[in-house]
Amino acid sequence: xxxxxxxxxxxxxxxxxKAMLANMACSLxxxxxxxxxxxxxxxxxxxxxxxxxxxxxxxxxNRRIVFSYLKDKFAVTELFREVAPKVGDRPGGYxxxxxxxxxxxxxxxxxxxxxVDFNELYNAGKKEVKKATTRRGRKKAETTADATxxxxxxxxxxxxxx
Length: 162
Fold this sequence. Notes:
alpha+beta; 6 helices; 57% helix
């Protein structure tokens, strides 16, 4: 029975598990994808998804909370500068786990965990959504285009008068 078993302890003490997940999260943020066992990938997914959600709002409080989990200021900077703008419109599900087969040495199930928005293979077929331009923006472009020839003709007219 698995009553009350919310997290996979991964056969480690709490401090070792925390340090391992923090290091794996930093590696995932830095490299955008890592290979690990399926159990560790599932544990990492639960660990990193709330951190990515916190990174969507860039303020000092959220940076300190994320730093308390990751313990690496370069990973925190990368998360808030690179990852957060790409996942800004996504409501969740920032990571993807792809099973790779079994490891040769001990036959452990291996998986690749990656950040969804940084995979070029799956996102290649999708076109980026262009933001609709406002009419105001077009009018300004037209008026500047119209104004330019008018000033040239007035300049030419002054030259002919002289």
